[in-house]
Write a structure and sequence with these properties.
Layout: H1 2-21, H2 34-42, H3 47-56, H4 66-74, H5 79-89, E1 118-131, E2 147-157, E3 162-170, E4 173-175, E5 182-184, E6 187-189, E7 198-200, E8 215-216, E9 240-247, E10 254-264, H6 270-287, H7 291-294, E11 303-304, E12 310-312, E13 321-322, E14 326-327, E15 340-342, E16 346-350, H8 351-364, E17 367-372, E18 381-390
Parallel strand pairs: 4-7
Antiparallel strand pairs: 1-8, 1-9, 1-18, 2-3, 2-10, 5-6, 10-13, 10-16, 11-16, 12-15, 14-15, 17-18
Helix pairs in contact: 3-5
């Protein structure tokens, strides 16, 4: 009688023991292979959970030979998951997973076409000199202002990660095509540049020079890249594409954040180099929390100007700097000089926001971004005109 009463309970424990031996195709599996990833995909496990499993797996035996990679893709394994496998193979399980394959960001920016995406382009179409900056009387860069426009950008995923790599793009210089002579002994020196590296712009001098009220290009004038421009500067003329890439809504959405700026050029790149380091750090920190914006869980305007990105102590009087700097300029007698800062405009686009931006530009014209120097930096005040277009 005693055995009969306890037999069902024993069978239950025995059954649980055998169930525990059954291979789990879910997230509890530690050692993974290509086939286990395919099984997870076919079982409907989300991409995010599969990536998390790959990151945490130990002793996994993945094969990413060309034939094996092709088999994974044919089985429906996404590029994001394949990249996570690749990072696992190389000991990078904690590296943020990225989507897409970067191409030459200096020319066109963005990533290659992806399935289910729509391609968009963000263009700087014009700048206007509302008030010229303070120009040094001994500057060799030419009469009036010489400027260039730039953009730093990063595509971000719904998994709090940068897609590919963050990038930057810089235009040629606009202003006086000739240099101001500076006497060195009996021989004057002039700043001259290779063909097309400086473009004539502005009305301050017969050879150019930006002064109050100038705009480039002038309204109603359509410009194209010079046909004989070298490959090194092709694509760096205004109108200039700041970013072009694919945005996807729905499952696994993505977005892009762009920092458009305009710079006074004095041919000294100290602050430009500091800016690129600080901008890269800002974009990386933004990406670590990007999922809330990409998913739409937290609202974000298409353009806002709130985050201080650059903090630097100027080491000289003349240097390339963004119009819109505030704080303390160069002070040669200060024992402990204060910092100069810069708050750029940030444009954030998802597929939905890009459609909203395209509609706005069609009905209202280009977006306007105003940059005004802080009180101690002078009267500089420029407006950038930015257009968002749907490529296809």
């Amino acid at each position: 009688m005693t055995k009969t009463k306890h037999l069902p309970l024993a069978l239950i424990f025995l059954g649980l023991f055998f169930i525990a031996l059954i291979p789990d195709k879910g997230l509890a599996q530690d050692v993974m292979t290509n086939q286990s990833v395919v099984d997870l995909v076919k079982s409907g496990v989300s991409e995010k959970d599969i990536v998390a499993k790959i990151r945490s797996s130990k002793g996994s035996k993945f094969d990413l030979s060309p034939a094996a990679r092709a088999a994974l893709e044919k089985a429906g394994v996404t590029k994001t998951v394949i990249l996570a496998i690749d990072q696992n193979n190389n000991g990078g399980g904690s590296t943020p997973v990225v989507i897409g394959s970067p191409i030459d960001i200096n020319n066109s920016g963005g990533t290659r076409v992806c399935d289910g995406c729509v391609r968009y382009r963000v263009i700087i179409t014009q700048f206007v000199v509302n008030n010229a900056t303070s120009d040094s009387p001994v500057s060799r860069d030419g009469f009036g202002d010489e400027v260039f426009v730039a953009a730093n950008f990063a595509e971000v995923s719904s998994h709090d990660a940068i897609i590919g790599v963050s990038g930057s793009k810089k235009s040629v210089i606009y202003g006086d095509m000739d240099g101001r002579p500076v006497g060195v002994g009996l021989i004057p020196q002039l700043e001259h540049y290779p063909r097309y590296w400086t473009m004539q712009a502005g009305s301050g001098h017969p050879t150019g020079g930006l002064v109050n009220g100038d705009e480039y290009p002038r309204r109603g004038v359509t410009l194209h890249d010079p046909s004989d421009a070298s490959a090194a500067i092709r694509g760096r003329f205004i109108p200039m594409t700041l970013w072009e890439g694919d945005l996807r809504a729905g499952a696994n959405p993505n977005g892009v954040i762009i920092l458009p700026t305009i710079w006074e050029s004095d041919n000294v790149d100290d602050v430009w180099n500091s800016w690129n380091r600080d901008a890269s750090t800002f974009l990386l920190n933004f990406a670590r929390h990007s999922s809330r914006y990409v998913s739409g869980a937290m609202a974000r305007p298409i353009i806002e100007q709130v985050d201080n990105v650059l903090t630097v102590i100027p080491q000289r009087r003349d240097y390339d700097r963004p119009v819109g700097m505030d704080g303390q300029p160069f002070d040669p007698i200060a024992a402990s000089p204060d910092s100069a800062t810069f708050v750029p405009a940030a444009m954030f686009l998802t597929a939905d926001k890009a459609e909203e931006a395209v509609a706005y530009c069609v009905s209202h014209g280009d977006y306007k971004i105003d940059y005004r120097d802080g009180r101690l930096f002078g009267p500089g005040n420029y407006t950038l005109f930015i257009r968002v277009e749907r490529v296809r």
